[in-house]
Design a protein that fits this description.
Blueprint (H helix, E strand, L loop, with lengths): L13 E2 L1 H12 L4 E6 L2 E8 L2 E6 L2 E12 L2 E7 L6 E2 L2 E3 L4 E2 L15 H16 L27 H34 L3 H8 L13
Antiparallel strand pairs: 1-8, 2-3, 3-4, 4-5, 5-6, 6-7, 8-9
Helix pairs in contact: 2-3, 3-4
């Protein structure tokens, strides 16, 4: 078995901007210290001039906060204690916290193939329109058995069309990759070139995208 070299973001607990919002509110109310329990250990927060100090596993770090203007409001960010880069999420280790890069973490999607990555993108965009839509084994087919692909009642037509356009774009990319894979698989099984396999079996004609206009 190949030695594992990557660690993923799902392996460590995290603090997000929601935690920051709670901390800012609590400190504004006069609370002088907070604690947050994670599976890596307990974080102890105290307010400081430019943000907070955080203690975990006997190590104390300065956790600074940055802000940017967004529209008519302000968005806050953590500054990674190690590289000072802005981050919306910090990961919690046994004795430190830091951004994804400083913790040497990867996203799980970075370790899957292009075909599976596109399939997950299609599925994510389907759920963005129809949250309760079950997954079909042939995810790129529009004519799911007895399924309603109409606009959700609570969604504006403009929003629906924009989300549907992004979904169809992802489906086309997924079908293209899947078509190339099938063509190569057929050619290997039958000992012929991919072009001959496509011509004989008409693979490119097997996949069609339906017009979804109402």
């Amino acid at each position: 078995m190949r030695k594992r070299t990557r660690h993923y973001t799902t392996e460590l607990p995290r603090i997000t901007l929601l935690h920051l919002k709670v901390m800012q509110r609590k400190f504004a109310e006069g609370v002088w210290a907070l604690q947050h329990d994670t599976r890596s250990g307990t974080l102890f927060f105290k307010a400081s001039d430019k943000g907070f100090t955080v203690t975990i596993g006997g190590s104390t770090l300065n956790l600074k906060i940055s802000s940017t203007r967004v529209g008519h409001g302000v968005r806050y960010w953590y500054l990674c204690p190690h590289c000072q880069a802005r981050a919306a999420i910090l990961y919690v280790g046994k004795q430190t916290i830091g951004c994804r890069k400083c913790c040497k973490l990867h996203y799980e999607v970075q370790s899957i193939g292009n075909e599976e990555r596109l399939r997950l993108q299609v599925r994510r965009r389907q759920l963005d329109i129809w949250p309760n839509k079950p997954e079909h084994p042939y995810i790129f087919l529009k004519d799911f058995i007895n399924q309603d692909n109409s606009k959700p009642a609570c969604m504006r037509w403009h929003t629906f069309y924009m989300k549907l356009l992004r979904l169809r774009f992802s489906e086309v990319k997924y079908v293209t990759v899947l078509h190339d894979k099938l063509r190569k698989d057929f050619s290997r099984l039958l000992g012929m070139t991919p072009e001959d396999a496509e011509e004989i079996f008409g693979i490119s004609n097997c996949i069609s995208l339906r017009d979804d206009r109402p």
